[in-house]
Amino acid sequence: MDIILASTSPYRRALLGRLLPRFACEAPDVDETPLPGEGPGALAGRLARAKAASVAHRYPQALVIGSDQVASLAGEIRGKPGSVAAATAQLRASSGQRVSFHTGVAVVAPGIALCHVEPFHAHFRNLSAAEIDGYIGREPALDCAGSFKVEGLGIALFRRLEGDDPTALQGLPLIALAGLLRDAGFDVLNIN
Q1: pLDDT tens digit string along 67-113?
Q2: DSSP string, 89-123
Q3: Is 71 in a helix, a strand, or coil?
Q4: Cβ of 92: how many Cβ atoms within 10 Å?
């Protein structure tokens, strides 16, 4: 059975490569606008399912993996910054705060529709303006929820990380995904 990652994210592609030797990537066609009153966890789960379903519709015999991550500060959803000014503002607001991440992962195949949302929390240090500018100057994470890359220099922004699966913070919770794949009859430890 073909396996497809419903994403063009290089971060998710690299993470999935830790579990699977072969898979394809396809861009999903999904409106990521939150629904009225939709919380971060519900949004992450809905978008992960929608992304997997979007690609599964085009490849109905494949096993499709969808994922989405939603960051929130004090319950307010925060998107990818997209610009240096927005990244600076996000990191200033995150300074000394706990930012929550909900990463949804879905597996869709013929007769199978599974989903899990993994929470993770980043406790930011109190950051000076110079530290924020220095970070953004060296590693502008403009395409990352929260405006940082935990797998890179972004690790220096925190005083503590809290959660069961550190790969969730990177954008694809591999512990949960391996479990969903097992539930779907696909054991990543027994791939030839």
Answers
A1: 999 999 998 999 899 999 999 999 999 999 999 999 999 999 999 99
A2: HHHHHHTTSEEEEEEEEEEEETTEEEEEEEEEEEE
A3: strand
A4: 12
What's the predicted TM-score (pTM) here?
0.93
Q: Do the beta carbons of residue 8 and residue 51 sit within 8 Å?
A: no
**How far apart are alpha carbons 90 and 33 in whole angstroms?**
19
Query: The tokens 């195949």 sit on which residue?
Result: 109
Token pair for 182: 């097992």
Q: Looking at the chain, which runs of residues are DSSP E strands?
A: 3-5, 24-25, 63-73, 76-78, 98-109, 112-124, 158-163
* Rg (the chain; Cα; Å): 17
| Catalytic residue IDs | 68
Walk me through the domains of the chain, giving residue ranges and CATH numbers: 3-190 (3.90.950.10)
Q: How many of the other CB atoms lie within 10 Å of CB of 17?
A: 12
